Amino acid sequence: MDNDPCPDKGINKFTKVRGLLSQTWSFLDFKYNNQHFLFAGSDDGIFLIKNDSAIRMSEYTGGFTLYQCTTVPNKIFAGTRDRLNTLTYENGEFVEQIYEQDLFH
After folding, report:
1. Can you give the pTM of this predicted structure?
2. 69 assigned to some structural domain
3. 54: domain range?
4. What is the Cα–Cα distance from 85 to 51, expressed in whole angstroms?
């Protein structure tokens, strides 16, 4: 009998993602028009995780909070180190909008 309380059955496990090198603060399972995208917010910015690799999606560092808008479901709000950014899914790609007003000054 195996005494391991969490035996690895090959599912639900953590694996390292290529290109995601810093501490990660949030994940978002973005769902829109029967498509799913996994985003990660880390110290280095906001990343789209695709085929076990991270693709940087933001110009600024520090992606701490990710939220899919409920009234405009193709839009993601991203709280970064000192700004609010949005990523909008349009015509098969994500377009970043950066709000230039520094939230802390």
Report:
1. 0.79
2. yes
3. 28-98
4. 25
